Amino acid sequence: MATQDDSGSYDWKIHPQAEAFLELRISDFLKQNRAAREISDMMLKETSTRFFDWVDHIVIPNETVNVESMKELQFKEAKGIKKPRGTKVYINNGSIFFPVLLSPGSHTKVALKPELLGHFLQMTGIYYNWNDDLSALDEQSRPNSDYFGRSLGLYQSALVSDEDQSELWASERRGFNGFVDPRQHHDREEYLSNYQDFLMRRRHFSRDRDGLETLLETVKLFVKASRQELVADAFFRAERQFWQSRDRGGMVQRALQDRLGLGWGNHDHHAYRSSRENYNLLIEIFETMGFEAREQFFAGKQGGWGAQVLEQPICGITIFADVDITESERDFDFAHEEMTECKDIGTVGLWVALHGESILQGGMHHLAARVDFGQAEAGLMNHGVMRMRPFSDFKFLKQAFVESERRPVELTRLRNTVDSGHIRPERQGFFEQIGAIGSHLELTERRQGFKGFNQNSVSVIIHATDPRM
């Protein structure tokens, strides 16, 4: 579990024993299931990602596990989650570990989490348990034991390979945290309409605050007609698409992962930057979609930045939201209290001044993907994408940005930034010619279940990516 100290900081623990338990189970599974083993090898070689980071959940025969040992590993039984009859669900909420299901059956089952199930089956179809007697187009005619769910539904799952009592499954979720067909089908047309609206939403406004207020009202309207977790799922699928369209590192890594039909199922966190005056609106938008505030960061007088971490508990989406704050503001809830515009702006404020609010035309500052750290550097380098110096290098957390492309700056924004004194006039021509550092892909490797962030490390990379440097 993560505990909170008097300052509201979260103390996320490491769980080496729990990790060893899960890794042993996955290792034994890979030995038994050839398809899973080959897919695991391709994940590492072709995408620089680890099979472990793609696991949605694991099902273990309950006769092989001592329930008391699960409790010792900080896994607690989760109530109120839809699951097969006779099955118990155990979750370690203080970690990034996937759920463990204890089943009365005799098979071990591992489910992967591609972003789109159909794409994954298309790209790994050589392993899929196709039924030769039935039309591949008729998904309803497949036996319930092999496939369940509906296109764009809350939960789809398909049996990929069954070997020696070891079943490899693939699952796609849309705002659902259960493990069986929910049977309570949502309005798929409404979900698709929301997703399309998020894709095509207006991002450029004369006043940024007008844009955030418009988006807030849109989200409130969608949530009223649907559910928070469904709106959040649609919103962030659209956000990742917009970010990726303007980030070469993201394009390359996504293309590699799409060779196996994986998509961004390995996302670690989504990072946004905001101006001080609009920060509370940004947080309100996320909380309207069901995000809950986690730890806050304050980098001190010299750092000049703060951040609120938020998490959507059903979707499993995490947000790291940056903002410039002053030392005097560290003792109040800057995420929910209004902050006024400040004469002196830091790295975050300058990025927003040049590119716009992250939630609008600026787009996400970065998307963090879980990878095998060493493998990813070489893999991306082979495609002309260079990694920056790591800003976290611990046994339990490694992080690094890949180098960002410079993005053109709108002339009006640039002139306003110069007129406000945030950039020296003699530097205007430099930014006009080559633009300013835009967005990044972040490579993240987490071990021992560590769920948090390191404030000092984040300060290093925020300073290193200041447009004035």
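The record above closes out task 2.4. Task 2.5 opens with a second protein, given below.
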Amino acid sequence: MEFKGKNVLVFGSGISGEAASRLLLREGASVLLYDGNDNLDRDELAERIGGGENQDLKIVLGNLSEGQATEMLDGLSLAVLSPGVPVDLPLVEQMKEQGIPVWGEIELAYSVGKGDVLAITGTNGKTTTTSLLGEIMKNCRESTFVVGNIGNPYTSVAAETSEDSVIVAEMSSFQLETIHKFRPKVSAILNITPDHLNRHHTMEAYIAAKERIAENQTPDDVCVLNYEDEVTRKFGENISPQVLYFSSRRKLNRGVYLDGEDIICDVDEKIRVCSINDLNILGTHNHENAMAAVAMAYAYGVPMDIIRKTLKEFQGVEHRIEFVAEKNGVLYYNDSKGTNPDAAIKGIQAMNRPTVLIGGGYDKDSSYDEWIEAFDGKVKKLVLLGATREKIAQTARRLGFSDIVMADSFEEAFEKCVEYAEPGDAVLLSPACASWGMFKNYEERGDKFKELVNEL
């Protein structure tokens, strides 16, 4: 689409909305930025976007009447949704009824950007895999951009890309809901377990959103899938792109797998990549993330010596089973990125000592049974806070776990952990819930935890 002279609505501010607005203004569009939050500072927003006194930027804030909504949509050529905006909102439905194309910021960036996209989705492991693949590509290609749900909007770099660029993109289900022509050269779905059901409403809708990552791929492209995940294994049976599986449990005829402690890449020839003991990231889930990154890089043509060297150097991702410090004989781990039960299970599985666990937060309609069952004798005390604390406590007691302490604040929860942890124990922040309501995001929550640890 040619944007020059077009009227485009950007729905939702935040870093994605601001970056999308900047890109559209650069491309010559007239931008109307709308956000339902009327507490935002209009002048501050305009300054951040770089619009300032720009006549091509208009900002509308707060709830709209039906008449105001109709007036706002009049004459639009395109609407670009930020990932946090549900696609089933009445205003979005109205756009569709009026024939206004509805894109996400990923589609916008893809339409402007150049180069090849390597895109990763999945319920868990996206950030680690994206970061690792990003490091591999940086060691191979000078023009590499790591973007998406990882905190760096694709729209913020799209204008800088060239034909020889590689864009490594972490894709959430929210971002994949609004693609149209987006086509990665190599895609990956790491796993699919229940998450964000408050947004998608059904597991089927959540799975369908994740699987859209491959819908525009052709037989010239590659999709990397987890053989041990029933949903992704079945998905790989009927899709257009070439499929490469990875597995932590069995040897594959073609793919990347664990053989004892060795990661094997068996695609064109059988190659020993490295031992899992050479990696700096803990746990089987991280070995799977490493195998997914190996498969994607190899499928894209990266030499194995570069892949191998990067794997051994990679230090992991902040807020994902991140060792913080040892204080008074107690080891402190920050797994604030464990924002759903399945991710938090991986945090517990990585612990090898009695653990005092901080859990709870925003309610995403998750079930906590499997998380509690994964305690497996390791968790000696569960400290709960946030909107989900009663729900989690009821689940835990029903399953026979009663060493529970309630806290009214994050600081209080941390103090309880310090009180109950003995030398030789671990304290693990792995909440199984989002941070909303108490913190802006999981990063802020993890940073607060590290600050409290380092003050001990």
